[in-house]
């Protein structure tokens, strides 16, 4: 029972208070489905930010962004595989992994979105690389 409470608490932390409050699930299957839905939401937001950025930057920056994103995806997945080890073999593992994936994807979305709000003169901001 303590593990279940810890898993639900971890789920709430991973998804944030708004997403966790939206989940009306009471079973582990419900919680897993809520976590998966949140992951899909964050993935859609990240893909939208990525698409907007790709349209704004020049060819060299586009190639660099593609390479960075391709490298980032396995990093995210392996990080969350590691974090879900504590729930390995249990019914909460999909929830823990999806919560991790959503949290890291949300961080990536913030970074990509930040590139779209570059300050003039910021030479390190990808969004300024129009070539």
Main beta-sheet strand count, sense and barrel state: none
Query: What would you report as the Rg, rounded to the nearest angstrom?
Result: 17 Å
| CATH overall fold name | Substrate Binding Domain Of Dnak, Chain:A, Domain 2
Helix content: over 70%
Provide a short characterization of the protein structure.
The chain has 4 helices and no strands. It is mostly helical and 131 residues long. The protein has a single domain, classed as Substrate Binding Domain Of Dnak, Chain:A, Domain 2.
What features would you highlight for this structure?
Substrate Binding Domain Of Dnak, Chain:A, Domain 2; 0% strand; mainly alpha; 4 helices; 131 residues
Walk me through the topology.
Layout: H1 2-22, H2 28-56, H3 59-83, H4 93-115
Please provide a written account of the structure.
This protein has 131 residues and is an all-alpha fold. The chain has 4 helices and no strands. The longest helix has 29 residues, at 28-56. It has a single domain (2-116), classed as Up-down Bundle (Substrate Binding Domain Of Dnak, Chain:A, Domain 2), CATH 1.20.1270.180. The protein has helices spanning 2-22, 28-56, 59-83, 93-115. Helix content is 75%, strand content 0%.
């Amino acid at each position: 029972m303590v593990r279940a409470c810890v898993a639900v608490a971890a789920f709430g932390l991973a998804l944030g208070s708004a997403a966790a409050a939206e989940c009306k699930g009471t079973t582990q299957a419900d919680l897993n489905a809520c976590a998966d839905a949140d992951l899909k939401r964050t993935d859609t937001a990240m893909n939208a930010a990525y698409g907007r950025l790709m349209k704004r930057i020049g060819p060299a920056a586009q190639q660099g962004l593609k390479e960075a994103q391709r490298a980032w995806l396995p990093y995210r997945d392996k990080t969350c595989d590691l974090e879900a080890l504590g729930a390995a073999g249990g019914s909460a593992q999909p929830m823990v992994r999806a919560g991790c994936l959503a949290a890291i994807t949300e961080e990536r979305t913030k970074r990509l979105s930040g590139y779209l709000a570059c300050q003039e003169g910021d030479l390190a901001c990808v969004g300024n690389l129009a070539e």
